[in-house]
Amino acid sequence: MPDRGGGPTGPRIRVGRPSRRARTLLMTLGVLAVLGMAFTMFAGFWTDWLWYRSVNYSSVFTTTLWTKIGLFSVFGLLMAVAVGFNVWLAHRLRPPLSAMSMEQQSLDRYRMGVAPYKKWLLLGITALVGLIAGASAAGQWRTWLMWVNGVPFGQKDPQFRLDVSFYAFDLPWYRFLLGFGFAAAILSLIAAALTHYLYGGLRVTSPGARATAAATGHLSVLLGIFVALKAVAYWLDRYGLAVKSSDFKATDNWTGLRYVDANAYLPAKTILFCIAVICAALFFATLWRRTWQLPVIGFGLMVLSAILIGGLYPAIVQKFQVQPNEQAKEAPYVNKNLKATREAYGIDDAQVTEYSGTGSTKDKTKLRDDVDSTASIRILDPNIVSPTFQQLQQIRNYYAFPTNLDVDRYSKDGKDQDTVIGLRELNLNGIPKNNWINDHFRYTHGYGVVAAKGTTADAEGRPVFTESDLPSKGDLGDYQQRVYYGEKTTTYSIVGGPQKEIDYSDDSGEKTTSYQGKSGVSLSSPVNRAAYALAFSEPQILYSGAIGEGSRILYNRTPKERVEAVAPWLTIDGDAYPAVVGNKIQWIVDAYTTTNGYPYASRTTLGDTTADSLTATNNSRAVVAQQNQVNYIRNSVKATIDAYTGEVKLYQWDTKDPVLKTWMKAFPGTVQSKSAISPDLMDHLRYPQDLFKVQRELLTRYHVKDAQTFLSGSEVWQVPDDPTNKSGNAVPPYYLSMKMPDQKAQAFSLTTTFTPNGRDNLSAFMSVDAEAGTSDYGKIRILKLPTSTTVNGPKQVQSQFNSEQDIAESIKLLKGGDSDIEYGNLLTVPLDGGLLYVEPVYVRGGGLKYPLLRKVLVTYGGNTAFEDTLDQALDKVFGTQDTGTSPPDDDTTTNPPPTSENPTVQGALEDAQKAFDAGQDALKKNDWEAYGKAQKDLEDALRRAEDAQNAADKKKPSGGGEASPSPSGSPSASRSPSSA
Predict the structure, then answer these.
(1) Max alpha carbon distance in the chain (Å)?
(2) What is the pLDDT of residues 8-55, one digit of tens each?
(3) Which listed residue, 149, 542, 691, 857, has the most CB atoms within 10 A of its CB?
(4) What is the pLDDT of residues 327-338, one digit of tens each?
(5) What are the Cα distances from residue 457, in Å, to 408, 461, 943?
(6) What's the CA dihedral at 33, 39, 40, 42 to 10 degrees?
(7) Predicted TM-score of the model (pTM)
(8) Strand 509-513 and strand 449-457: pairing?
(9) Residue span of the structural domain in which 946 resides
(10) 130 and 266 share a domain?
(11) Is residue 238 situated within a structural domain?
(12) End of a domain among 324, 344, 364?
């Protein structure tokens, strides 16, 4: 053993090698560490592969994986070879060592230190830059697939006459290649210069020549390659002007050439391209001339030209040619932008019609009848009544409904009706005791659909359910009610094994079940269990006895997660909605293809454009975007997710979209044809909200087709803030069955309003036919209000509601105690030249934890009503109530019934008076249950009074005597409260 330390007389410390056992232990630990790291990397890959295979989209995984591997390998290798070759060449071209200067003597230490490790150092450097470059290139897999699979748009840009596909698919790839080339040239130049300096080819302080001839030639070639790439960049920049964004006049995201671009920047880029080519040739010429003089002069000329021609000259053109006569100069380019933007966002066929907005002078009875034929007014607000569904239909604490319910159409007796629908989904926060078995094995799914009529409420203001209870029953028939996949199902479950699941509970006790679907990944393999234990950081998956034969793990369970995973090239709509289709609960998800490379089309930011008062309070409704800034969008795919099996299906919806065709070439077999959509499913497809919000935002500026008007900004609109929400965000669009003035029948529509920029009066009303399968689906109609007169907008209508004294007093009464008022959706309906506004008013409090519909606000033509039911409010607004059988304001909750001389009628009216008083007492106490009972007693008493009066009238001889007055407030003389 060697001795260490101490002198001849000092202590001797014996230092030995580790024992064989210790060495074996260390080697074993090292091997285990390496294996552990390898398995950790393998687990993520393996679980992804298993999941994609379980949903039958393994081709998406393999195509994406091999594309990434290919890009990583090719570009990583190219970068490594480029840098490594130039380091090797610089070392090969090193000068022979001669008399050492002070500079070289100081560098000699580094050379000697590097010498034993030259090969390893070269391999390490090249491997590092290769890994970084490869990882960067792998992230461009979408760009590569779009370039290699791109199909033509069949449209040419107005400046260069190139197909739009060049800008959408080709130009991004060429820019990536150019960026990679610049990176390779710069890294190679730096590495070569350092190597030349280290081995004496470059000198900084030594006297004499600063560089050897070999170093000069080598570095000049690299600089020549860099300048040549700059020349290519100047050439591509010419085409990039067509998709360049800038702030300009009425839009912050103007895209395309303007006058200064076409007449200054475009020729400047061409001139700079030529100068850069010449400059690159001068650098290459140093291989023969061995002098830097000409290339340096050329490079200086290029820099100076870039400043003067590329910067100063366009500024002069803008200042002295454009600004003095801007509208005339810019008009041709604005027209190109208007046309391209309208085409790119699908708003080029929007139908704009002048609309007076002042209301009709026709007979009021006719107007009242027109309301029913014009719209099925939805007074049940899906964004408010979720707590009501929760309170009345939750049944068990471990169920919950989404914060915002959905609106769909279902047929009843051959007639479609707007329906508010939600699923009773699993709520883990409500289970009796949280532990790993309960959270992931026993409580695994929700149960059933709950649906209610959108156009009515019962006498107590509660929804009129068409599908309810547990298990759910009603109008929807038989269907698989278990919900294993939903918007609130954000954790994994392990099903199908020895552990039984809680299905639901009823009066007879708790029911159990075992998942029979084929969804999920089998955990029968120890390798799979180990991989998922590692992937989910849950070691119990590896050894738990609750997992056995048949156990399967379900994850990625929200509809948007699943569609985004199987189609990562799509942008997902923020609102997935459920429908009962073919005896199954299906989630329907709208998906978009987008690009930001449509020439001349202005860009928009999806996150900002689709934000409204609902996304502000419910982030799950925000759009999921791959690229947030886009200037082309199509609702090209309709996707469905089975709530029981999790099966994902993608259907081609826009059969003309070239972006979708490109992705279908890249991922063949993943998207089914449009003809595969069943008629049952077609009945529930609708126009998507996020696309509508993008289009309405663009239409605030691009509804005009005249460049002069666009530039003046006089016709700019804005989407008004939600008057019923204090968040300050835009009003959301509303689904509503209605007909526009040019339509013959009601159609399921998506609607919104516009106000002038900076003002609150109404400037336009917009709707789109949202009913899939019809010839008018997707047709945008805009009713443009006159600028010479003002029509109240949503905020003004809301202010009018709140400022009327009678309404204010009624609202104050409703707010008695600890109750609170919630305003529902303010619906706008065009009616005979005017605009009908309807807003439900909900009351929450007084011992109730959920909102109930108590009043309906209606206004038309300056007349306003605030009544218990929609029909009562409409009758009052249009003055069609029967004054002989109704109190003056048609509101039995605020006016006691009159008296009569007929004893039977008198007795019934006395009962009605008692019921009325009881209702008033209940109203003051916020006892809504007692109030509802009193209203029913009142209705019954008035009906008895009417029957008695009618019987007495029949006994009188014809024409003899004076008829007794008909009892006031008779339900037969007006619509009953339950018909709201």
Answers:
(1) 149
(2) 444 444 445 667 777 787 778 777 777 777 777 788 899 999 999 999
(3) 857
(4) 889 899 999 999
(5) 17, 5, 21
(6) 150
(7) 0.84
(8) unpaired
(9) 903-979
(10) no
(11) yes
(12) 344
